[in-house]
Amino acid sequence: MEKLKITGNGPLHGEIVISGAKNAALPILCASLLTKETLKLTNVPMLRDVATTQKLLQGMGARVMTDNVQEFELTCGSVNNLVAPYDLVKTMRASILVLGPTLAHFGEATVSLPGGCAIGSRPVDQHIKGLMAMGAEVTIDHGYVHAKAARLQGARIIMDMVTVTGTENLLMAATLAKGQTVLENAATEPEVTDLAHCLNAMGAKITGIGTPTLVIEGVDSLHSATHSIVPDRIEAGTFLCAAAATRGKIILRKAAPKTMDAVLDKLVEAGAIIEAGEDWISLDMPKRAHAVNIRTLPYPAFPTDMQAQFMMLNSIAEGTSTVTETIFENRFMHVPELNRMGAHIEAEGNTAIIHGVEKLSGTTVMATDLRASACLVMAGLVAQGETIIERIYHLDRGYEHIETKLGGVGAQIERVQ
Ligand code: UD1
Predict the structure, then answer these.
(1) Beta bridge partners of 405
(2) CA 187 to ligand 1 center in whole angstroms
(3) Which of 28, 246, 259, 410 is the most buried if burial means most Cβ atoms within 10 Å?
(4) How far apart are CA 29 and CA 398, in angstroms?
């Protein structure tokens, strides 16, 4: 099994190019199921979750062409297998994103229920409730959701909580429904907005984009389009945190600072000097970070996907801080690993109290989920001595060439067997 070996060696310096957003690429790849014509995508990050989605779509009969340099052409005219099997869904929960578009276009879909995952139970009841409100007949049998509808009907759907993939599934389904659909309490994450723009380029009629009320006038069919995936705000935030933790100075290119206000504000509060233009961000961290309090909430507030990285930054900051996780119930698995490296963190319920320490020390740690893994990489960059990170397949789900990118700004990091 592959591992990462990191030797802490001081501040990061230089430039990193940011990839397309994983969480925008996954629903947009699935949006190709809504048309028989070809969807062309650029700036797609080459990640394990993207490869899993490709495999899922190909298994359904889609033609997927990729040159492996972030460009994809997907044609779903020959889709003939309307099933997302457990084997794929269990490795990537976002597989549920084929449910809405497959049902809307082909009148039927069968998707394995994702079940729980390391960070929480993560049910999909809102996806199902919304599709039923649009007239779908839904049954759950042998661990699979089976949905059927000759044609979905527009409906007003008020979601019980803000759900990102739930909003995306219903948004895609509504594009081909008969009549108007209104999605209330919709997620406003930039990745949902990116999907909505792509759908409109395919001929959908969506208004209210970027707001909690999405209004969709259903159309009879969608057509071909070309779309570039929005930059990954979580990858960008992770590298900024890494630079801040090492007291470095970096510039990110091809980034989207306008989607990162909450994270940039917290970095400034921690003492970073941040400058930003349309598609770049620079960070300079001349001295030790100040501890900052964090509370995760849906966009535009502070993202749960940046919680672990800020916890790491706080662990070596000056002062005591609290981090409260309100989105997922079990997202503190990095705490014991950080403590093994010398951090002083007490977690109780969904709040962690972090007493900043002067330094961490390298050891062997285990990655447990995607963003927890990123926080352990950051810890390795600042720790004294060598850190070995095991189970890095989590990292490969969501960070493109992380060791090359960090190596390019001076980190001593290598992938070993
Ligand atoms: C997406 C992101 C993930 C991010 C999360 C929150 C993708 C592929 N993944 O995950 O990186 O951490 O948003 O920003 O985009 N919930 C229900 N019922 C539902 C749906 C959700 O109870 O039907 C709950 C979940 O258990 C969770 C909360 O709602 O507590 C938010 O989850 P959700 O936004 O759906 O997360 P994902 O879309 O799975």
Answers:
(1) none
(2) 10
(3) 28
(4) 15
Q: How many angstroms is it from 154 CA to the middle of ligand 1?
A: 24
* pLDDT one-digit tens code per residue, 155-202: 999 999 999 999 999 999 999 999 999 999 999 999 999 999 999 999
Structure tokens at 370: 């995607």
- How would residue 120 be classed by pLDDT, with cut points 50, 70 and 90? low
How do residues 362-415 score in pLDDT, each as one tens digit? 999 998 889 999 999 999 999 999 999 998 888 999 999 999 999 999 999 999
The distance from CA 118 to its chain's CA centroid, rounded to whole angstroms, is: 15
Query: Structure tokens of 413?
Result: 């990091």
Write the residue with the smallest CA distance to atom 20 of ligand 1. 124
Confidence of residue 117 (pLDDT cuts 50, 70, 90): low
Structural element, H or E, at residue 157:
strand 156-158
Closest of 155, 147, 199, 197 to residue 175, by C-alpha? 199
The question of whether 241 is a catalytic residue gets the answer: no
Widest Cα–Cα separation across the chain: 63
- Tell whether omega for the bond before 286 is within 30 degrees of 0, i.e. cis: no
Alpha helical stretches, state H, 329-412: 334-340, 370-382, 393-398, 402-408
Question: Distance of alpha carbon 370 from its chain centroid, rounded?
Answer: 9
CA angle at residue 370 from 190 to 406, to 5 degrees?
85
Nearest CA to ligand 1 atom 17: 123
In whole angstroms, what is the distance from residue 102 CA to residue 109 CA? 6
Give the C-alpha separation, 385 to 7, whole Å. 6
Q: What atom in ligand 1 is closest to the CA of residue 187?
A: 34
pLDDT tens, residue by residue, 331-348? 999 999 999 999 999 999
Task: Name the residue of 161, 234, 296, 329 whose CB sits within 8 Å of the most ligand 1 atoms, as the mutation to test its pocket.
Answer: 161
What tokens appear for 271 in the block?
């003492």
Helix (H, G, I), strand (E, B) or coil at 103: helix
The letter for the amino acid at 106 is F
| Token reading at 93 | 């929960």
Tokens of 407: 């190596």
Decide if pLDDT at 119 tops 70. Answer: no
CB-defined site of ligand 1, < 6 Å: 23, 26, 93-94, 120, 122-127, 161, 163-166, 191, 304-305, 327-328
Q: How far is CA 23 from the centre of its chain?
A: 4
pTM of this structure: 0.97
Q: Quote the CA–CA distance of 47 and 45 in Å, as a whole number.
A: 6
Q: Could you tell me the two tokens for 141?
A: 């049998």
